[in-house]
């Protein structure tokens, strides 16, 4: 299962789309094993491929399934990745009401996380963009420099680098 997943992930990241066979095989085995976390990983990556192939409806369905799997596995933060991907698709489609709903599902006001020494701790979450807004221009310049240096040394997909929202925990 892991081999199929890694083959698909590697090929898709190199711009070689059309890896449904490997994703489906990996998902099937992880389902047989009952590994919800890995199912979520596969579904999220499979959703990204569907998105890049222009199959937005399939991408939404895969992202939603992935978010559900990692949530069922007990991950308090992981489902946000899938819901933010759904929000991005809805936004790209001009469906801003759907994008806002998906983004709100992805961004709880707080989450419960395990605390060092046992027990749980409630922490607030804030948007990464808000926390780092004053550094945005410097970060963009730095990212362009790194990308240019990497492209000189490493074969990379001609696909544009994409920006995604991040979260930071406070508290």
Which radius of gyration do the C-alpha atoms yield?
Answer: 18 Å
What is the overall shape?
globular
Largest sheet: 3 strands, antiparallel
Percent of residues in beta strands: 5-15%
Low-confidence stretches: 127-132
Number of helices: 8
Q: In terms of quaternary structure, what is this?
A: single chain
Fraction of helical residues: 55-70%
Number of strands: 3
Distance N terminus to C terminus? 38 Å
**Could you spell the SSE succession in H and E letters?**
HHHHHHEEHHE
Overall pLDDT level: 81
Based on helices, strands and strand pairing, what is the structural class? mainly alpha
Strand order, largest beta sheet: 1-2-3
Sum up the structure in keywords.
171 residues, mainly alpha, 3-stranded antiparallel beta sheet
Description of the structure:
With 171 residues, the protein is mainly α. It is built from eight helices and three strands, in the order H-H-H-H-H-H-E-E-H-H-E. The chain has helices at residues 2-13, 20-33, 36-52, 56-72, 79-92, 96-106, 128-132, 136-153, and strands spanning 110-114, 120-127, 167-170. Strands 1-2-3 form a three-stranded antiparallel beta sheet. The longest helix is centred in the C-terminal third of the chain and has 18 residues, at 136-153.
């Amino acid at each position: 299962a892991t081999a199929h997943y890694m083959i698909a992930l590697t090929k898709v990241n190199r711009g070689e789309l059309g890896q449904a066979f490997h994703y489906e095989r990996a998902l099937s085995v992880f389902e047989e094993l009952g590994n919800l976390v890995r199912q979520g990983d596969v579904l999220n990556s499979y959703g990204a491929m569907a998105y890049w192939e222009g199959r937005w409806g399939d991408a939404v369905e895969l992202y939603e399934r992935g978010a559900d799997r990692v949530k069922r596995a007990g991950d308090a933060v992981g489902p946000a990745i899938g819901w933010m991907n759904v929000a991005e698709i809805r936004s790209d489609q001009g469906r801003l009401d759907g994008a806002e709903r998906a983004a709100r599902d992805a961004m709880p006001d707080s989450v419960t996380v395990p605390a060092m020494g046992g027990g749980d701790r409630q922490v607030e979450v804030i948007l990464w963009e808000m926390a780092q807004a004053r550094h945005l221009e410097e970060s963009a310049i730095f990212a362009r420099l790194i990308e240019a240096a990497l492209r000189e040394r490493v074969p990379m997909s001609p696909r544009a680098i994409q920006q995604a929202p991040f979260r930071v925990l406070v508290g």
